[in-house]
Design brief:
Organism: Danionella cerebrum
Number of helices: 4
Subcellular location: Nucleus
CATH topology of one domain: Immunoglobulin-like
CATH class of one domain: Mainly Beta
Pfam family, one: T-box
Shape: globular
Keywords: DNA-binding, Nucleus, Transcription, Transcription regulation
Main location: nucleus
CATH superfamily of one domain: Transcription factor, T-box
């Protein structure tokens, strides 16, 4: 992003130049991009979004980090040098996501926060090796419905509850060079889901029995303060959508979690991970 310098302006168009009137500085930066434009499906790969959500990143908790979590030192707000890149993103463990998706993926939400399984992981390519990038994700409502599990299937049960506060989760390695990001799997396994509207830990707040869609964003920027004024390259993988629950509703999903999640020991010990349905 570049700033355009304005010519010195003098009050009153007919007045002569006044040597003691200082010229105005550069104009203020543009406002943040709109929250969520329409989806556009590119050929192959995930769903891409033009310039998506960043409603209040600087507000408390809105960055997905608790206070004092060791973010990198902030740098100058001078615009980043132009870099040549053409980002592409591949979803890791796509087959596992599709296996869950065919049965209707469920993710448990708790007051204290629960990690996702399958975890959201991607591989990035096409980044400029030397440029710095911030990688982040958010989880948004997939529709305006509330659901219930009835007769072994999910069905619409009415209109959605009011939306929870929106939060972005910034990958803790941000910002890092394109070379660093492309050298590894980008893992968001530390992201936690909660139904606690008063959460102070930066967890993603969701409504139970509602369907959600994770979204992944790439921002070329070397400073978190630049996020509201930066261009987002965003990707959605439809097979990662899920319904938030306080306890698993579908026995087939419970079994898949037992079979594939190495941390599902509690389910294996009891043979029954179900609790009272909400």
């Amino acid at each position: 992003m570049s700033f355009l310098m304005r010519e010195p302006m003098i009050p009153g168009s007919g007045m002569a130049f006044h040597p003691f009137l200082p010229p105005l500085g550069p104009p203020p930066p543009p406002p943040p991009p709109p929250f969520f434009p329409g989806l556009a499906l590119p050929p192959g790969g995930g769903l891409a979004l033009g310039r998506p959500v960043l409603e209040s990143l600087i507000a408390e908790g809105g960055l997905g980090f608790p206070r004092g979590s060791g973010l990198r030192a902030l740098k100058s707000l001078e615009p980043e040098e132009e870099a040549e890149d053409d980002p592409a993103v591949q979803l890791e463990a796509r087959e596992l996501w599709e296996l869950f998706h065919r049965r209707g993926t469920e993710m448990v939400i708790t007051k204290s926060g629960r990690r996702m399984f399958p975890p959201f992981k991607v591989r990035c390519s096409g980044l400029d090796k030397k440029a710095k990038y911030i990688l982040l994700m958010d989880i948004v409502a997939a529709d305006d419905c509330r659901y219930k599990f009835h007769n072994s299937r999910w069905m619409v049960a009415g209109k959605a509850d009011p939306e929870m506060p929106k939060r972005m989760y910034i990958h803790p390695d941000s910002p890092a060079s394109g070379e660093q990001w492309m050298s590894k799997v980008v893992n968001f396994h530390k992201l936690k889901l909660t139904n606690n509207i008063s959460d102070k830990h930066g967890f993603t707040i969701l409504n139970s029995m509602h369907k959600y869609q994770p979204r992944f964003h790439i921002v070329r920027a070397n400073d978190l303060l630049k996020l509201p004024y930066s261009t987002f390259r965003s990707f959605v993988f439809p097979e990662t959508d899920f319904i938030a629950v306080t306890a698993y509703q579908n026995d087939k999903i419970t079994q898949l979690k037992i079979d594939h999640n190495p941390f599902a020991k509690g389910f294996r010990d009891t043979g029954n991970g179900r609790r009272e349905k909400r």
